[in-house]
User: Fold AraC family transcriptional regulator from Paenibacillus antarcticus.
Amino acid sequence: MVAQVDQVNSQIDSLSEQQWLAIIMNDKSYDSQFFYAVKTTGIFCRPSCRSRPPRRGNIRTFQTADQALTENFRPCKRCKPTGQRLPDIEWIATVTDYIDRNYMKPVTLEILAEISHGSPYHLHRTFKRIKEITPVEYIQIIRMNKARELLTQTDLGIVDVGISVGMHNSPYFITLFKKMIGFTPLQYRQLNIKRKQRGDAAE
Ligand SMILES: [Zn+2]
Assistant:
């Protein structure tokens, strides 16, 4: 059973030369014939989509939009492969998903706009309306939460904790952590150790 499913999947996966050309030429005549998804962004498009062509190795193709949806790909906001307007909530979910998975890499408003197929301005405004914080604030919250985890659960040095959450500028990492959490990363780690020791003593 499993082997059969794998076989079907690999058939759907294989991108033909013709399909690849249709994608890079934005060929509308292929729109009813297949859809393509980009593994790195989790978004799927019609062949005619004017978004920047992805790397060939990251593409998966599907015969129907439903197949792509079943595999948890999200419809592109620009070419609307499901034929409906993509609700803003869905669009913003695409962006937060991306941040949750890529917070350790450089993430800017421009990158988020690119991967979610919108303009930076529109993305910023819509994000703020739905999440009540800006995309940059969301990135910072995710990064600080991961940093707290690393500080309490690993022995990584402060600089490495910063790097692990995508903040290579160590002084800036420390400043932002203090501003958002109320302690420096080192203080936070020490407080946590003390708290743990008190906990152990009580047991
Ligand atoms: Zn598209």
User: Anything to note?
Assistant: DSSP finds ten helices and four strands in the chain. Residues 11-75 form a domain with the DNA Methylphosphotriester Repair Domain fold (CATH 3.40.10.10). The chain has a mean pLDDT of 88.
